[in-house]
Design a protein that fits this description.
CATH architecture of the largest domain: 3-Layer(aba) Sandwich
Structural class: alpha/beta
Radius of gyration: 21 Å
Number of helices: 8
Mean pLDDT: 96
Shape: globular
Length: 349
């Protein structure tokens, strides 16, 4: 076992979660990643569309490890006549998972306004019974109310808010009794544990038996994060959350090796290598399948036509795409497996 730096991981998560990065809004989070990589001393490149790829060294048989920077969120679809905002989701955000959440509206000119996601009508005491029973729907009965004295569409436009502006949800991170609760554990907690693994490689001078890149992608939530890969890549390993549920093996205290998701089975040989690495390293792991609504950036690379093997690992995480929760042991076990796999000598098949 390599010795998980819990403080570094949680501090990195706090820095990451403080930056709004709804899919497409990559500039500030990319700048932060450049700061992290400068602190760790790894060379990197920025991709043209948004994202950062770090070079960890090693020679031959290149592996890409990927964890994504983008968050699900909202976008202004229309400004209503009463000064509220009609919104649409960016990524897999559902109304029932964000009603009453505080938000920040980012305009194209760089202004930021606060507000709240509300039902319409917004007070249960003055809502007819049949309306209370209706499911929340972004198109019909959910809006964003601004923390501004606005009463018309013209009032809102005078602030500089317009259709297409991005809306980020408050993350509300809390660490309590070993549990990490926050929005966007998917995937900023995985970015943080990946940075912790990179820190271990650098500080211990660990020799990698193959070329390793770490791709911090910015479009995973909408399905094209790793559609481009560096030249000659052979394998891609996604580090992403493992959703928990009644029929799932995944556990917040453990790392999951993914067998299949809603798109594809993961590569049999590479998945077996991860399983073997977990056993050899004494990592607390499970195998699991995620359907019907799950995929990772490794799937994106396969769909883009790259001749790569793909696999995925991640900490068991509850309440996916809502106010999520995992445990520090899940992050630690994922960190340990990630390092064990990156340092594993390739063996005959």
């Amino acid at each position: 076992m390599f010795g998980f730096d819990e403080k570094y991981c949680l501090d990195a998560f706090s820095r990451l979660i403080a930056v709004d990065s709804t899919t497409g809004q990559y500039e500030r989070i990319e700048d932060l990643m450049v700061d992290f990589l400068g602190e760790l001393g790894f060379p990197y490149l920025r991709t043209h569309k948004g994202g950062v790829i770090a070079d960890l060294g090693g020679e031959g048989d290149p592996l890409v490890v990927t964890a994504h920077l983008d968050d699900i969120g909202l976008m202004v679809r229309h400004i209503n006549s009463d000064g509220t905002l009609n919104v649409c989701p960016v990524g897999g955000l559902y109304p029932f998972y964000c009603v009453t959440e505080n938000v920040r509206v980012h305009t194209r000119e760089g202004r930021i306004y606060t507000g709240c996601v509300c039902r319409t009508p917004n007070s249960v005491h003055v809502t007819e019974e049949e309306l209370r029973e209706e499911l929340p729907d972004f198109r019909a009965n959910v809006c964003v109310v601004l923390d501004e004295d606005v009463y018309s569409a013209d009032d809102v436009r005078a602030l500089g808010i317009e259709t297409g502006d991005v809306i980020a949800l408050e993350a509300r991170p809390v660490f309590s009794n070993g549990f990490l609760k926050s929005r966007f554990i998917d995937d900023k907690a995985c970015v943080a544990l990946t940075l912790a693994a990179m820190k271990t490689v650098k500080e211990r001078g660990l020799a990698l038996p193959r070329k390793v890149y770490v791709y911090f992608a910015a479009y995973e939530e909408i399905g094209h994060g790793t559609s481009w890969l560096p030249q000659g890549v052979r394998d891609i390993l996604s580090v992403d959350i493992a959703p928990t549920g009644p029929e799932q093996n995944s556990d917040e205290h453990k790392v999951t090796v993914f067998c299949k998701d809603s798109r594809y089975p993961y590569h049999w040989g590479m998945t077996n290598e991860l399983r073997e690495a977990a056993i050899e390293a004494g990592v607390d792991y499970v195998m699991d399948i995620f359907t019907p609504h799950y995929g990772t950036d490794g799937d994106t690379s396969i769909a883009a036509g790259h001749d790569v093997r793909h696999a995925a690992i991640g900490p068991g995480t509850a309440n996916s795409h809502g106010y999520e929760r995992t445990h520090i042991k899940g992050l630690e076990n994922t960190y340990e497996l990630l390092l064990a796999y990156m340092l594993r000598e390739k063996r005959p098949q």
